[in-house]
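Re: beginner question about structure tokens

> Can someone show what the tokenized structure looks like for a real chain? I only ever see the sequence side.

Sure, here's an example I had lying around. Input first:
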Amino acid sequence: SRSMSRMRALGKFAFRNASTPVAGLRRRESVAYLEIRQTGPLSGTYRVQGSKNAVLPMLAATLLVPGKTTLHRVPKIKDVNVMLEILHLLGCCSCWEGEALTIDAGNVNNWVIPEELIGQMRSSVILLAPILYRMKKAAVVEPGGCSIGRRPIDIHLYVLQALGVKLHYEWEEHIFAQADYFCGAHLFLKFPSVGATEQAILAAVTANGMTVIDNAAREPEISELCRMLRGMGAKITGDQTGRIVIEGVKELFESTCEVGADRIVAATCLSAVAVCSGEITLTGVDASHLNGVIEPFEKMGCKIWSDKDTLTAARMDKLMAIPYLKTSPYPGFPTDVQSLIMAVMSFADGQSVVEEGIFEGRFRTAYQLQKMGAAIIIENNQAIIWGSHLIGTKVEAPDLRGGAALAIAGLGADGVTTIFGYDHIARGYEDLAGMLFMLGAQAALRE
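And the corresponding structure tokens:
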């Protein structure tokens, strides 16, 4: 293709082996689909998988050490596979042992992130800072928007430039970055972007001098990354406050770290018990990371309590509507749970309103729910939902969280719900059907 030819002009590393799959990884679209049947009260225990949103920047951070890093509780999901394929193409080796994944970044020899893989996973842009640290240059195709809305990387680029990176633009969407070293700086993010905060952290930990990141994202995944980096020798404070202070160090060291629980997967389980009723127990989860999610579910009639790393959720009474709910950055209600709670609201008694404050494309799931009989009206950035009677039918997952939301809706709908587009769901869930089945739901993955 023309873009491939252009990128090859960068030099001998550009797109080498980009068309050769890494052993064990599949490129082709899956023909699998989910089959969900109406389910009564749930009952069961589930150990929540490692966090997708935490593990991806942690994998990027392994590039900062010219040696081995071991991560425990790594979810075996499609996005991890894509990140591993990129790391392999950059010169890394990896080895699985159960849920433990070891990355050896001792022989990094490439500086181009393949366009094909950027298209599969936009968050791979966070590799820019680590690649620059190792190779002094990096090349990437600007990822553009995605199915849930506009997701520009302008804040990422602002961060890199402020820390001393020189950026060059070729052929419009191609970005080339150069930096012999990073320089500490005072950064103010115009929006508390999780990805841009992670980019800034990954660059600042080895920068010359001090870096202050104001209006930084406060999501638990930020603290997960900082916890890992501190274990590698980084000097970071304030990662839960919105003002992160980093004193750059000359080098980082080999380490071992465990990935925390996926709070969005936990919220998916809460959505299931909200629709089906019953009582479930989630283990290995930090309930404090779910405060912004728990409150709305409690308002709808769920009872939720926690003890150490265990969370129990139950619903026995009527499911009630929420008059108004808006998504916002942490510690607010997360945009990743918006599709899920919209599915739950479709069974609630009364009228609910959800306002999307981050990604305008999150409401695409509403049109699939309407196929099932959901009474939903979209007005600008708000969804107005009336509790109604849903009937199982064939639907298409519009994105990762939307696919999970359709599975939740299928648990309460009459008959059988068939959900296609399973590749979207596989990006973030190890086995969504298996998880729901363990909690007592009638769910199966079909080929």
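Each token stands for a local structural state, so reading them left to right follows the chain. Residues 1-26 have pLDDT under 50 and may be disordered.
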